Amino acid sequence: MKLRVIWALFRKDFLDSLKNYQVLLMVLTPIILSLVFSNIFQESKTKTLLPKIGVIGSPNQPIISRLSSEKFGVRISFFQTRDEMERKIIEGDIGFGLILPDGFSQQLKAGKKPRLTVVYPTDMPEFAVERMQTAFEKEIRLFCKQPIPSLPIDLQLQAIGGNHDTAHAFSGDLFPMLVLMAMGMVGFLGLPLSFVEEKEKRTLYALFLTPTSSNELIIGKSLFSIFLIVFTVLVMVILNNRWNGNILYFWTFTLLGAVLYIFIGLLVALFAENQGSVNAIGTTIFMLFQLIPNLSQTSDLLKSYSAVIPSTFIARGLKKALFLDLSKVDIQSDLLIVFSVALLAYLVLFLCLKYRRTKI
Amino acid sequence: MINQAFVGLFIHLQGNVKTAIFQRYMKQAILVENLSKRFGDNNVVKGISFVVEEGEIFGFLGPNGAGKTTSIRMMIGELPYDGGRIEILGMPMPDERETIKKIIGVVPDHQNLYDRLTVRQNLDLFARLTDTPVERIDEVLALVNMKEHENVPTQKLSRGLRQRTLIARGILHKPQVFFLDEPTSALDPHSASAIRKLIRTMKHQGTTVLLTTHYMEEATMLCDRLAILHQGNIVAVDTPDSLRIRFGKANIAVTLKPTADEPEKRIEVPLNDEASARKIERYLSEGKVLKIHSQEATLEEVFMNLTGSQWKESDPGINQ
Question: pTM for the full model?
Answer without folding.
Answer: 0.73
